[in-house]
Predict the structure.
Amino acid sequence: MTAVQQLVEHALAEVGYAGDGHNHTKYGQEFGYDGNAWCAIFVWCMFEQVGINLPLKSAYVPTIWSWARAHGLAIASTEANPGDQIIFDWTGHETAAGNDTHTGLVVERTGNNVVTVEGNVGNDQVLRRTWLAGGTLIAGCVNWQSMFSGGPRFPLAPQNPPNRFAYFPTVARGSLDQGESGVFPDLRHPVTTAQNALNIATGREGDNRLLSPDGAFGPLTETAFRDFQAFCRLTDPAVAVTGAVDRTTWRLLDYFLDIKGR
């Protein structure tokens, strides 16, 4: 049995499982983030339980989609294969940029249809569902095929000039890292990395640190990044003051860390 077949059969075996109706599930417990929306958590657990470690651990669908796009792993649902991760945008805008999003695992392609297994649907359940590929409620899919082929975990495009944060996803209020990070920068802990980077960029480290690098993107982190963006906007009017750490903000952090010699 191939790795993708093992993943698909494992996911199908979970169909019918139900949580307690309040987002408490065995998947949330395994992920370390129980009691929260668990569609992305379910997908991560399916990979983890068959021995495949995804390069990104996030319970927030927009973060996953942003990361996939930054790494060249975002594909149209018409190109999806079993083992890929489908990304939904219930607004119909196909951007998956906000909270009105959802995700699941592709387990079959039948004609123009994509068959999925999804968690956190129905009555807090895992269900098998069928969608028309290319539908307006689908933003696209994350192409995880290299995870089954033994190829590189994700493509690395050359950066000119180099940017230490080139592959980091957009993080915003509500984003949450899982577990402690012991390195910097750490792609698996983008919120902690952003908090540490802003402390360095602003010269507020140690006992005088601006943010506690706790991996939780709360209101204090959002306010701090709004202030940082407003400062940068004084010399670059194109900088948007949103409080979210998007690609532009990562680039600015990289610039300031270069100035600091860090």
